[in-house]
Design brief:
mainly alpha, two-stranded antiparallel ribbon, 16 helices, 2 strands
């Protein structure tokens, strides 16, 4: 609102200083400050409300009684602070900001319903007509929403984002080699019409010449048909990226401040990449795609970072509040959509390496446990010592998953053989969290460096 107000004052009143809000850097700074202050100030009151209404985590699965009763659904603090800064300081007519807002609302609704179902049924409240309807979305163990429904929601968002970038005339890039070379001032640059409106399936890929990869190369078709087929591939990639990063962030949110800190680091990195891609001088210097109007996303990301840092005030060890799925699912989705818009989605393999490791650890653990259980069952049957109904435990690769729990839990309290022998003793939770932050920071630096390593 402030952006549009000052834009009006600049055009029709020539109000002194109103032109200041045209600068992305100025609005980004204000966005951080507004979201940070709102998160810290409102956070205290929201946490008190969550406690009052018994919206708390029961720590049933973890068995950590010390954390039982900690308020959850604190992601509401992040979302309210983010929305306030975005509506105040962003250009709401910008397509990319609109996509990010839709993504945020979409996934926050899924996360909210998931948290609501967990809390209502843990409290033994069946409720009225609404809760009976929501019960149809419930998992059999009543621990949140059915997994496939969450996946459907994430797939739906990926489809919306992919199709929006395909059909919208405002979602364009300037290809390498076509950026004017006599550019002296980004505020005065006018990109020729035939260059500005370029629909492309190209994306950024690290360590290769020109850092470019075209999804149409994955299809056997050529020419215009190949480009259309390339967009089909791109939409499928968008679906996968949104689903994978959103779930990866959700798995990472298992320790005080872990997901919050890693998302801040990834968010700062993506904000830097968006600023570079939206600035024609920096884009040409780094030989990367120039994406007109993508710089506006920096203001959005600045608001998210401010909200997260303010939330970390209460979420760091020992946490006074957990973000819940309403926060973690949404944060992962924002990172994914942000990366897709600025064409760096393939760099997420590096940048979001912590999320990737967390997800892979869960997949490997389940696969290995089932595999070894089946093998042991067959061996017992061959020996004639297996009785129908016997529970045969499998082996584990990790003490527990996701990966961060492997370092925190005491292996002596876990039944069965564990393949990984390190660490022999559990590591304190704050130390594990900070180490994961450090790894995230190193991956973020590597991600930025890839712009020049070819």
């Amino acid at each position: 609102m402030l952006y549009h107000l000052f834009e009006y004052l600049k055009q029709y009143v020539d109000f002194p200083g109103s032109g200041l809000f045209r600068y992305i850097s100025v609005r980004a700074i204000f966005s951080v400050i507004v979201a940070l202050l709102l998160s810290m100030i409102a956070g205290k009151h929201i946490i008190a409300r969550l406690k009052k209404h018994q919206i708390t985590d029961q720590a049933v699965k973890t068995g950590e009684n010390g954390k039982s009763g900690t308020p959850t659904m604190g992601g509401i603090i992040i979302l309210l602070s983010l929305f306030a800064s975005v509506f105040l300081l962003c250009d709401l007519t910008n397509l990319y900001v609109q996509l990010l807002l839709v993504s945020t609302l979409w996934l926050s609704l899924i996360g909210f319903l998931d948290d609501l179902l967990k809390l209502r049924y843990k409290a033994g409240k069946e409720g009225g007509r609404l809760m009976r309807f929501l019960q149809t979305l419930q998992r059999k163990d009543r621990d949140g929403m059915k997994g496939k429904l969450k996946i459907y929601g994430q797939v739906g968002l990926g489809l919306i984002v992919g199709l929006a970038l395909f059909f919208s005339d405002r979602a364009v890039i300037v290809e390498l080699g076509k950026i004017p070379k006599d550019v002296n001032d980004t505020e005065q640059v006018v990109v020729p019409e035939d260059i500005r409106h370029v629909k492309s399936t190209k994306t950024t890929i690290p360590f290769l010449k020109d850092n470019l990869f075209d999804y149409s190369w994955l299809t056997p078709l050529k020419g215009e048909a190949g480009q259309k087929a390339g967009w089909v591939v791109y939409v499928l990639v968008a679906i996968f990226i949104v689903t994978a990063v959103s779930n990866g962030t959700n798995l990472t949110d298992g320790r005080d401040g872990l997901a919050t800190g890693t998302v801040v680091i990834a968010g700062v990195t993506l904000g830097i990449l968006a600023y570079l891609s939206g600035n024609i001088i920096y884009a040409r210097y780094l030989n990367i795609m120039y994406i007109p109007n993508s710089g506006e996303m920096v203001v959005f990301m600045a608001g998210l970072i401010g909200a997260l840092v303010g939330f970390l005030w209460y979420n760091t060890y020992p946490a006074q509040v957990f973000m819940g799925d309403v926060g973690s699912l949404t944060l992962g989705g924002i990172l994914a959509v942000f990366a897709l818009i600025i064409r760096v989605e393939l760099l997420l393999v590096i940048l979001c390496g912590v999320f990737l490791a967390e997800s892979v650890s869960v997949i490997l653990q389940r696969w290995w446990y089932k595999r070894t259980r089946i093998r042991k069952t067959k061996e017992l049957m061959e020996q004639g010592s297996y009785t129908s109904g016997d529970i045969v435990p499998g082996e584990r690769i990790f003490v527990r998953t996701p990966l961060h729990d492997h370092y925190i839990y005491d292996r002596k309290k876990v039944e069965g053989n564990i393949r990984l022998k390190d660490p022999e003793k559990p590591i304190a939770e704050p130390k594990v969290v900070v180490r994961f932050w450090i790894i995230s920071l190193l991956l973020a630096v590597l991600t930025v460096i890839t712009l020049k390593i070819r």
